[in-house]
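ARCHIVE CARD
CATEGORY: sequence design from structure
SOURCE FIELD: tokenized fold
FIELD CONTENT:
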């Protein structure tokens, strides 16, 4: 990160904001990103990317048509991976990998996205030694391109009903892959349409006449020389989408397509040559690639929200519109209290999500080490944490980005702002890797929280709780929340408030479920009738985790220059959640009306405190103009002249007269004239 972000020629308002900040941006950046050394490495990586001619992003991606965009993203992906090992530590996907990729690929996926984000981790963790020897080399050298083909036209969520079959034939020691219906067609896999010649295919395993559920297979789809689909394989692109249009998400069908026995991933489950099935240690080990993406996407999502809020705060500092005191001049829109309430909670959220991403990364790495030793103990915990965070974080990120866009008025609607790209990319995260509601229900039903199981075991006095769930067993306090005013409230009190709300809803949902079990004829029906309350319980549980984790993380900071900023943002995060959380905090009079009014006063006072530092705080996220790709969010604040330049470079302005005018409008006008 540079010594100072102030330069000659910068917009005067934004310069004044930076001069008036009460702390040094470098210090906060170091804390946010995990230390000075990491910030230094980010700068080193950024400089190396800037120096490399092949990584120059000369084409403004937003002006490209779909096929041009796909081609440009493929060019960038190849260049990015050609020089990757000279620039980054490729084994650090959560840190250097994700940053490096964002500098080059922007908010889009590409021909190699799934190759790196799902296939590589799956091969590292699910292939046996022999398969690892055979597959890892070509994956790393990129002599093949691969993807992860699981979802079908008819089924994405309910994996047990996938229709693609893999039937073992012991005579030839092959599996026969088949798509028996239209709805069995694989649909959605990234880079499947035109780029990949291999895929991990999830198919229902049948051997010796028995069904064993979905299992992963590493399947060649296209000829290594001609890239033509192999006989028995039908494959193509599914067409334009809301976002990620650089990626050729695809469809795939098999017609009795034979593949060798050793294409089934064999580290966990196995099929022996005679067709004997050997089950895995844990039934869900084959779902590991999904767990990896759910874990890594928390950081990705927080960075999307971080870039949106950087753009919105910087723009709000240079945009002057309206007067607060009549005749005293137009104010920066950042001075409006309503603007601050729209924006500053997004700063807090970005940090809360990022600190949670650090936690889930640590857990993922611990689980991976355990699994290497054959120990699956922590897997359910990781499944629960990553599923719950994935749902809450991607939803709040999408809502936050939209608030940032709205806060920028008309210019926020232009592609020049970058909001359309950020939003359409990030919001995909609500759907992929498990639809958000379904993942919340997982948290409630099956995951490490096992909320429902936990409640019954707590009441039976047999609960064995993890650190993250132990609060559920604590007795609800009979007294009110300890909140008196924002100045005096402690992190512990705020955490206690969220735990109160979560506990209250968890027990409420549990009791409703039990009641419904007496009213409906099956447990599944009762479960469905309790779904809304269960999702609320999961959401509050995850929010309690986010608040607790934020304050735990920040407690490591002893620097008197930046600690007050982190505390203000943490309090804003919590109080905004309490004020918006309404009923869960007021049940049984835990928060009184007066306390709630004081919470709102506390928020207003925090907004005032954060206001003078807002630009410096978002500067500390350390986004370069290269990453932001936003005229509104430029570091130098010179927005208006660059908006004009941006519009003028638009291909529609290459000629003064458009073909639309020549072909359609002119003949109409000429005809109109003739009728006069
Ligand atoms: C060198 C250069 C490098 C540069 C490159 C760097 C790259 C850096 C990376 C960048 C990161 C950017 C991130 C963005 C990438 C985006 C890519 C997007 C691609 C998208 C891909 C996909 O979407 S793939 C398809 C995903 N599909 C799903 O997620 C389907 C959802 N459904 C399910 O997961 C399941 O069906 C289910 C969980 C909903 C239910 O499963 P099932 O019916 O089988 O089980 P049960 O409900 O019966 O549960 C039984 C039991 O199992 C437990 N369980 C379920 N799942 C898991 C699991 N995964 N792990 C552990 N345990 C699990 C469940 O809790 C139950 O437990 P009980 O104890 O019995 O209750
Ligand atoms: C951008 C993007 C990239 C993707 N990339 C890939 C990829 O690379 N590989 C791949 O295999 N797939 C990929 N997918 C597919 C993705 O994983 C699925 O779309 C996702 O898992 C949701 O499944 P679905 O489409 O079947 O939704 P559905 O399950 O049909 O969901 C529709 C609605 O039904 C609800 N619902 C479904 N089941 C339940 C339930 N049990 N209880 C309550 N409500 C329920 C959901 O909450 C939702 O509201 C991608 C999708 C997108 C959008």
């Amino acid at each position: 990160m540079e010594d100072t972000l102030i330069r000659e020629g910068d917009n005067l308002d934004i310069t004044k904001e930076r001069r008036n900040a009460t702390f040094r941006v470098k210090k906060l950046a170091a804390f946010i990103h995990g230390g000075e050394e990491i910030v230094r490495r980010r700068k080193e990586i950024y400089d190396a990317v800037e120096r490399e001619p092949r990584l120059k992003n000369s084409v403004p991606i937003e002006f490209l048509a779909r096929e041009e965009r796909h081609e440009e993203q493929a060019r960038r992906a190849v260049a990015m991976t050609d020089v990757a090992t000279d620039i980054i530590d490729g084994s650090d996907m959560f840190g250097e990998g994700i940053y490096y990729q964002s500098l080059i690929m922007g908010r889009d996926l590409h021909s190699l996205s799934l190759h790196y984000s799902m296939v590589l981790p799956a091969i590292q963790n699910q292939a046996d030694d022999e398969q690892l020897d055979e597959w890892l080399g070509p994956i790393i050298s990129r002599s093949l391109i691969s993807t992860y083909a699981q979802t079908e036209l008819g089924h994405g969520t309910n994996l047990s009903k996938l229709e693609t079959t893999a039937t073992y034939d012991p005579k030839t020691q092959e599996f026969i892959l088949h798509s028996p219906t239209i709805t069995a067609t694989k649909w959605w896999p990234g880079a499947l349409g035109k780029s990949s010649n291999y895929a991990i295919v999830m198919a229902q395993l049948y051997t010796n006449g028995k069904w064993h559920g979905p299992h992963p297979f590493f399947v060649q789809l296209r000829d290594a020389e001609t890239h033509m689909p192999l006989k028995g394989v039908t494959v193509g692109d599914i067409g334009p989408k809301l976002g990620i249009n650089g990626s050729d998400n695809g469809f795939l069908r098999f017609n009795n397509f034979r593949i060798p026995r050793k294409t089934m991933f064999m580290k966990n489950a196995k099929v022996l040559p005679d067709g004997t099935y050997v089950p895995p240690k844990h039934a869900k080990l084959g779902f590991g690639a999904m767990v990896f993406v759910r874990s890594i996407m928390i950081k990705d999502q927080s960075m999307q929200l971080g870039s949106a809020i950087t753009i919105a705060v910087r723009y709000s500092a240079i945009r002057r519109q309206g007067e607060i005191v009549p005749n005293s001049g137009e104010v920066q829109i950042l001075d409006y209290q309503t603007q601050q309430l729209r924006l500053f909670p997004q700063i807090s959220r970005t940090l809360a999500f990022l600190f949670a991403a650090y936690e889930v990364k640590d857990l993922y790495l611990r689980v991976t080490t355990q699994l290497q030793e054959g120990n699956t103990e922590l897997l359910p915990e990781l499944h629960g944490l990553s599923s719950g965070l994935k749902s809450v974080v991607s939803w709040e990120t999408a809502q936050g980005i939209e608030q940032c866009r709205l806060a920028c008025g008309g210019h926020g609607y232009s592609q020049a702002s970058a909001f359309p790209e950020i939003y359409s990319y990030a919001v995909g995260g609500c759907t992929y890797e498990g639809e958000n509601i379904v993942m919340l229900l997982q948290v409630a039903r099956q995951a490490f929280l096992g909320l429902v199981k936990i409640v019954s075991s707590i009441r039976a006095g047999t609960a064995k709780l993890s650190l993250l769930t132990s609060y559920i067993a604590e007795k609800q306090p009979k007294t009110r929340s300890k909140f008196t005013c924002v100045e005096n409230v402690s992190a512990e009190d705020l955490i206690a408030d969220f735990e109160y709300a979560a506990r209250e809803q968890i027990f409420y949902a549990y009791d409703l479920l039990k009641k419904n079990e007496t009213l409906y004829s099956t447990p599944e029906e009762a479960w469905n009738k309790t779904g809304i309350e269960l999702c609320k319980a999961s959401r509050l549980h995850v929010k309690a985790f986010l608040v607790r984790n934020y304050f735990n993380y920040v407690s490591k900071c002893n620097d008197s220059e930046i600690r007050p900023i982190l505390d203000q943002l943490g309090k804003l995060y919590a109080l905004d959640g309490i004020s918006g959380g309404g009923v869960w905090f007021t049940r049984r009079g835990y928060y009184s009306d007066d306390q709630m009014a004081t919470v709102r006063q506390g928020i207003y006072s925090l907004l005032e405190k954060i206001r003078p530092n807002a630009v410096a705080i978002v500067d500390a996220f350390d986004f370069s103009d290269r990453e932001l790709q936003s005229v509104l969010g430029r570091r130098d604040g010179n927005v208006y002249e660059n908006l004009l330049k941006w519009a003028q470079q638009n291909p529609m302005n290459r000629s003064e007269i458009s073909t639309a005018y020549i072909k359609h409008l002119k003949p109409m006008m000429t005809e109109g004239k003739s009728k006069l």
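CARD ANNOTATION: The chain has 24 helices and eleven strands. The longest strand covers residues 210-220.
SHELF: design records, drawer C
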